């Protein structure tokens, strides 16, 4: 197992830490855990690309770790009454669908699409807007709705790229 994949595993391990800290009422501490998870995401991606350590497993586990953390964040923020249930439901369904879809495609032998600038921008904006939510700053919820809309645009681009990549791969194999 290479260093980027170990950092991804660390992100998975931070999910229950985040939940425990949030459940203890330490919302600032929970946000700090979320920021640490985000930093490991940036670091593992940088190391993987700069050192030629990108793997198929890492390409699948990295977004899964991100989505798992985001699902934990959505659930805890909803439980604390910090975000409306409609927003939480849409965020939850989108991320859950991406997790299930990625798993199905992986086990069917389909190639995954690496992160692009739109996905990275969307993730960065999620972190910024989540800071607004955690610290109860003005416009937090409208900004979260805006980033949610952007994330659907990003998802459409990923789906299109996924279809193109796997369509080309299928034609080369025949």
Detailed description of the structure:
- Its main location: membrane.
- One of its GO terms (molecular function) is CDP-diacylglycerol-glycerol-3-phosphate 3-phosphatidyltransferase activity.
- Pathway: Lipid metabolism.
- This protein has 174 residues and is an all-alpha fold.
- It has a single domain (3-173), classed as CDP-alcohol phosphotransferase transmembrane (TM) domain (Four Helix Bundle (Hemerythrin (Met), subunit A), Up-down Bundle), CATH 1.20.120.1760.
- Helix content is 83%, strand content 0%.
- The protein contains 6 helices and no strands.
- It has helices at residues 3-23, 27-50, 56-79, 85-107, 117-134, 140-173.
- 25% of the residues are buried.
**Number of discrete helical segments:** 6
Low-pLDDT parts are none
Instruction: Return Rg in Å.
Output: 17 Å
Give me the oligomer status: single chain
Query: Helicity, in percent?
Result: over 70%
Spatial shape:
globular
| Second-tier CATH architecture | Up-down Bundle
Distance between the termini: 33 Å
Strand proportion: under 5%
CATH topology assignment? Four Helix Bundle (Hemerythrin (Met), subunit A)
Please write the CATH class name. Mainly Alpha
Order of helices and strands: HHHHHH
Rounded mean pLDDT score: 89
**Helix/strand/pairing class, anyone?**
mainly alpha
Task: Specify the CATH homologous superfamily.
Answer: CDP-alcohol phosphotransferase transmembrane (TM) domain
Count of individual domains: 1
Main beta-sheet annotation: none
User: How many DSSP-defined strands?
Assistant: 0
């Amino acid at each position: 197992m290479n260093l980027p994949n170990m950092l991804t595993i660390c992100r998975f391990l931070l999910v229950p830490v985040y939940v425990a800290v949030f459940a203890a009422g330490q919302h600032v501490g929970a946000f700090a855990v979320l920021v640490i998870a985000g930093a490991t995401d940036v670091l593992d991606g940088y190391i993987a690309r700069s050192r030629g350590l990108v793997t198929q497993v890492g390409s699948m586990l990295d977004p899964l770790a991100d989505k798992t953390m985001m699902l934990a964040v959505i659930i805890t923020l909803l439980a604390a009454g910090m975000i409306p249930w409609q927003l939480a439901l849409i965020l939850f369904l989108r991320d859950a669908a991406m997790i299930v879809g990625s798993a199905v495609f992986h086990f069917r032998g389909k190639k995954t699409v690496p992160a692009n600038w739109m996905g990275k921008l969307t993730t960065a904006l999620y972190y910024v807007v989540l800071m607004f939510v955690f610290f109860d700053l003005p416009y937090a919820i409208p900004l979260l709705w805006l980033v949610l809309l952007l994330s659907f645009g990003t998802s459409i681009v990923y789906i299109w790229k996924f279809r193109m990549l796997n369509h080309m791969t299928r034609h080369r194999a025949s």
